Each structure stands twice: as C-alpha cells, then as structure tokens.
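Me: I keep going back and forth on a fold encoding question. No explanation is needed for now; the record alone will do.

Assistant:
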Amino acid sequence: MSAEQGRSTLEQPVRPEPAVSDWRKVVARYQGSNVARSLFQLVTTLGLLVVTLVAMYKLLHVAPWATALLALPAAGFFIRTFIIMHDCSHGSFLPWPKVNDTVGFVTGILMLTPYSQWRREHALHHASSGDLDRRGNGDVTTITVREYLSLSAWGRFRYRLFRNPAVLLGLGPLHMIVLQRFRTRSKATGSKQLWNVWMTNVAIAGLAATLVLAAGAQSLLVIYLPAYYLATMAGVWLFYVQHQFEDAYWESHENWDYATAAVHGSSYLRLPRVLQWFTGNIGLHHVHHLGPRIPNYRLQRAHDENPIFHVAPVMTIRQGVKALTLTLYDEQRRRLVRFKDLRRKS
C-alpha cells in the first residue's frame, strides 16, 4: 500500500451507527395523519395559491413589478402543494387510501406530475437510496470516479453537462413540464402508471384550456408557468441537497442498510422558519426517509424528541449551494468529490 493510499484509508469518515434496533418503534409514534390538520393544510395551501395567482393576474397591467414579486410566494405555495402530493404518495396525508389518492391526483395535475407514476418511482427511490448497485430510480444520476474515467470523451462531456448547476436548475424543470408527459415502460412505469400519465396529460390540457378561456393565454404563460418554473427550480435544488453532500452514505448492495442510509444518506437542511413552512419541513429529510409515513407536520417533533436523528448530516443554504459542485462518488475515499478533485489525484 502506498503512503497516499494509507492516508486515504485513515481519512475515511467513521460513521456513528444509529440505534437501529428500535427505529421502527420510534417512527411508529409519529405515523398516522391528523385529519383536521391535514385538511386545514390542504385548504390553506390551495386557497393561498389561487388567491396569489389571481392577484398576479389583477396586477399584471396595473403594476407588473408587483406581479413579478408575487411569483415568489406563488412558487412557495406550489412547493407546498407538491409536498401534499408527496405525503399522499406515502399514504401519510389522510387515513383513507382512495381519498388520499384523489388528493394526490389533483395536486399532481397542479404540479404537472402524473401522481401514480411518480409515486411508484419515488417508492423505488426510498427502497434504494444510497445503494451503489441500485442507482437510477428517482434520484439525481450519480456515477463513480471509476465509471467516469471509463467513459469516452463524449460520455464525459455529456455527464459534465448534465451535472452543471446551470443545467440542473435551469433545465431541470423542463423534465417536469415536458418529459413527464411521455413515458415508456420501465421498472417504475407499468400499465397502471402509463394510464395515469395519459389521464394526467388530459387533465393538464383541460386546466390549461380553462385558464386560457377564462383569463387569456397570459394567465398561463406570464403567471402560472413562471411561478411554477421558480418552484420547480427550487424543488430540484431541494431534492439535490437531500442526498448530494460530501459524506453522503453510499454502499454496495451487500453492505447497504436501510436505516443507516436514511439517517446518514439524507441531510438535515436547516432553513429559516418561513422557508421551512413553504417547503413542508422536507429539509428534515433524514426523518422522512426513516419514517416515510410520518406526515410533514410531525417531522420536526420527531427529530427534536429522538437522538437517533441527531447524528444526521446538517446542511445550511450556503452549504447546499456549494454542494452543487459535487459530481462523482469516489469509492476509494468514500465521499462525493468534484471534477477538479480528479486533477489533484492524477
């Protein structure tokens, strides 16, 4: 072993193991919805979204600068709408499966997302997050240093382009707007999911036609889509920082552990209270991954009351922005690295 390899071995992070023996009992205490609280969240979120969009429309020709400013809170309400759909996909929002799925389908239309297809893909993500041998299900495509070095020049260029922050954030929303309209059969998309995709497409077309007929094309092009685009850009970043940080947990399938992946492979993104409200506490992603059936409004209490969650990696907004430059998993060093780190190694 070379001196460099020796240092690399010594520098590997020591991961404190969570007390996984009773983690199921811990999360069980917070599972199950509070119907009144869930319905209040649903009504206030959708109500405030509609009010904000209408205000943007009313102000468009009077004070266009005000319309532009209101796009920010509208984007926040879109994110909160997505969180409701997200909770529905885990069966944690309401106790009645059919009502849960109806709410999920409707909020999915507003978010231009086929609910059943996304639910299946997201379930695969939860079942394989941090597993090096089961990548590619509802996550940000990440390859290892060894895999990157084995690519052709064209392959490296494509991967570098994909992982460029401007492409991820700037073009990422187009996946939600365009690519979700067309799906082919895959592990995440069977007959039921394909049917849901086309039913959602028809409903989205109906929503767009209603907006255009009621308030003109500008209601869609200048009000709805810009606010939605901002929300989706923020959503891409949120999803990115939840699993893309330097010491994120990655293991081969034979060594992979669900509880350890949840607590050490998901970040605790600390946000200002107002942003935590708009994002439905999704920054407490380590809690969510260990207990996906915990409603969004109980995640903070679950974290605060249980030491098992206190070992999760903590991130700030600033650290989350810097993490956008992390691009490859180095199996030797057991951490995510940047492209520039490859030059230092060679």
Notes: The two ends are 17 Å apart (CA to CA). Residues 1-18 have pLDDT under 50 and may be disordered. DSSP finds 17 helices and five strands in the chain. The CA atoms of residues 211 and 217 lie 7 Å apart.
